[in-house]
Amino acid sequence: MDKRYDIPFYTYQILDPIKALQEIKEWAAFHHERVDGSGYPFHYEGKELSIGSRIMGVADVFAAITENRPYRDAMSKKEALNVLNSMVEDGALDKEIVGLVTDNYEKLSFIRSKKQQEVIREYSLSF
């Protein structure tokens, strides 16, 4: 199995026996699936993906490209929206959810930034 498949696949396997977490299991394990079926680990597509899984997929990309990482700076709003919309055009992300991100970009970016700062602060205090 390709190494990138490991975490979503094992997330699915670990959470599967816990019936109370079935919905969360899907959100967590399917966030790398793509609307066109090109994602992983199961290659689900379109209606096979719950709205929660599609939201998590968009949120994962949004966070990855809009937050500073040790190896690169965050993308600008214009760059980030270009990436998200390009992924919609390529059939990877849900158009309606990306539209909601576009319409609420500043609010989402503020929340993401605030949470990122809190985590960095907490992490720094733990050492």
Which secondary structure elements does this structure contain, and how are they paired or packed?
Blueprint: H1 3-15, H2 22-29, H3 51-66, H4 77-89, H5 95-103, H6 105-125
Helix pairs in contact: 1-2, 2-3
Report on this structure.
This is HD domain-containing protein. It comes from Orenia metallireducens. GO terms for molecular function: cyclic-nucleotide phosphodiesterase activity. InterPro entries: HD/PDEase_dom, HD_GYP_dom. Pfam families: HD_5. The protein has helices spanning 3-15, 22-29, 51-66, 77-89, 95-103, 105-125. The chain has one domain (3-125): Orthogonal Bundle (Hypothetical protein af1432). The chain has six helices and no strands. The longest helix is centred in the C-terminal third of the chain and has 21 residues, at 105-125. With 127 residues, it is mainly alpha-helical. Helix content is 63%, strand content 0%. The chain is globular, with a radius of gyration of 16 Å. The mean pLDDT is 92.
CATH level 1 class label:
Mainly Alpha
Distance between the ends? 35 Å
Helical content stands at 55-70%
CATH 2nd-level architecture: Orthogonal Bundle
Output the CATH topology.
Hypothetical protein af1432
Elements, N to C (H/E): HHHHHH
- Show unreliable segments: none
Structural class: mainly alpha
Largest sheet: none
Oligomer: single chain
Number of helices: 6
Count the domains: 1
Roughly what fraction of the amino acids lie in strands?
A: under 5%
- In CATH terms, the superfamily is Hypothetical protein af1432
Instruction: Give the overall shape.
Output: globular
**Overall mean confidence score, pLDDT:** 92
How many strands? 0
Radius of gyration (CA) equals: 16 Å
GO molecular function: cyclic-nucleotide phosphodiesterase activity
Protein name: HD domain-containing protein
InterPro entries: HD/PDEase_dom, HD_GYP_dom
GO biological process, one term: cyclic nucleotide catabolic process
